[in-house]
């Protein structure tokens, strides 16, 4: 069964695409144009009542929330492709811890930077300079903690690549790319090495090709 | 091994306490006084570099982020106490989806209501009336979607109680209690029935006794 991924061009959906590629799962992408409001159409709201992307359909199984989707495929196909959860329940616990850190500490400030720097004019609201400055400061503090963590192990969840690292790919890509803030990564030796490692995985290069053809 | 829970009096830590009780795991609570800044002491930052509660210590295993901790115990002791994850990987996927909804859609507005209504004066900043109004409006929309979901199944993750429901307990308790917004729950028939069900579980009553003696 080919997995259908709705909204594949957007940041959070790239998490799902990178995971499906790591797990060697066949998929097709179905575009959803947020600027045209397609995510608020009744048909889409039947799949995702909050009206956000991504959503997957896998036969008659539908799932939304990108981090729930990557957990599902990492567990369902544990023995296929890259193992993204760790070998033991304790290792998975630490992976889950850093996936939560990504969601609650890393993502909000970098999302605000993306929103106010790259999308505010497209979405028709003024960029808030105060939000931009505060977000950059918060993100810097988070990256300082990552720098310390990555001095002790190669990846966030331990000495193996996991969904905790994978989940950082889309928005760190914005940070070093369109946001022009590569220095925030490069000024931290261990974060810089980690970024080179995870962003050079063939899965991420392929995900970018699929999502930004 | 008795699990040590740091910061048990606070909202997110109650998630962990409720889970440990459901799983019949022995624990002890270690108070951390946020108003005295104990969460920023070097000793605590060694356990939790972001300086927030809760943290658990289980022998030499340390874990933070409340939703990572409840996933860990739900999985490690799957066959002990209440099963909180569902029987199949597909059921767990749906549980994870609604746990993510709790974290990203439900929690932020209710947390803002708690912060600006109950804690702003203690923490020494003025309550922002605009944030309060916007948060209540956002929360209302989320609860409308819950009302629809709970018309189709007894609990958020399906017809079984799970970590997705459990994770809502501490901040819904604030909502119907100290925030004085019980009407937001009671005006929605299915949400109201769900709240009566989950808040009357012996585990939650015991968690409140442990945390607010």
UniProtKB/TrEMBL annotation, chains A, B:
- Limits of the GST N-terminal domain: 1-81
Q: Does the keyword Transferase apply?
A: yes
Q: Which SUPFAM superfamilies match?
A: GST C-terminal domain-like, Thioredoxin-like
Q: Which residues form a coiled coil?
A: none
What would be an example GO MF term here?
Answer: glutathione transferase activity
| Alphabetical list of CDD domains matching this protein | GST_C_Phi (cd03187), GST_N_Phi (cd03053)
Q: What is this protein called?
A: glutathione transferase
EC number per UniProt:
2.5.1.18
Q: Which Gene3D superfamilies match?
A: 1.20.1050.10, Glutaredoxin
Instruction: Provide the Gene Ontology terms for cellular component.
Output: cytoplasm
Its recorded reaction(s) are: RX + glutathione = an S-substituted glutathione + a halide anion + H(+)
Q: Which organism is it from?
A: Rhododendron griersonianum
Statement: the UniProt record of this protein carries the keyword Transmembrane helix: no
Which PROSITE patterns does UniProt cross-reference here?
GST_CTER (PS50405), GST_NTER (PS50404)
Check the record and name the InterPro entries matching this protein: Glutathione-S-Trfase_C-like, Glutathione-S-Trfase_C_sf, Glutathione_S-Trfase, Glutathione_S-Trfase_N, GST_C, GST_Phi_C, Thioredoxin-like_sf
Looking at the record, the residues that make up the GST C-terminal domain are: 88-213
A GO BP entry is:
glutathione metabolic process
| Family the entry assigns | Belongs to the GST superfamily. Phi family.
- Key words of the record: Transferase
